[in-house]
Design a protein that fits this description.
Histone, subunit A, 138 residues, 7 helices, mainly alpha, single chain, 0% strand
């Protein structure tokens, strides 16, 4: 009787979350695995759920430390780095953070940086356009 109740509870928990079909599709992508039991799929699904909950909680803590309300990639990276087993495989999978952009010191340098940006093919800067039209004799 006890085993039946445990099985029923497990099926209800699995059915409420509804990810078993997705896990089965992912497992079937591996050509070395021909068959997988429903118990194994349930364990894989539950472990992945626990892992994501742990990683999300760590990322939330990192975001709160930096007084942010939105979790960003840098927060997930910090949470993964804090947990040694996770950092061994997950940091290689996460995209590398972009290099920090150097901020210009004054407004004049901002105008200069706009001039230095490359233009799309066939486009001209407005200054060049005005110079060429004013230089044409009428």
């Amino acid at each position: 009787m006890e085993a039946t109740r445990d099985d029923r509870e497990r099926r209800q928990a699995h059915g409420e979350r509804g990810g078993g079909g997705k896990v089965k599709k992912i497992v079937k992508l591996d050509r070395e695995i021909s068959k997988v039991t429903s118990e194994a799929l349930l364990l894989i699904y539950l472990y992945a759920d626990l892992f994501l909950a742990y990683l999300t909680a760590g990322a939330r803590i990192e975001a709160l430390k930096k007084k942010r309300r939105i979790i960003k990639l840098e927060h997930v990276r910090s949470a993964a780095r804090a947990h040694r087993p996770t950092s061994q495989f997950l940091l290689d999978c996460l995209p590398k953070p972009p290099p920090p952009a150097s901020k210009p010191a004054s407004g004049a340098s901002k105008a200069r940086s706009a001039d230095e940006k490359p233009l799309p093919p066939g486009a001209r800067r407005i200054d060049d356009f005005l110079r060429s039209t004013s230089a044409v004799p009428q």
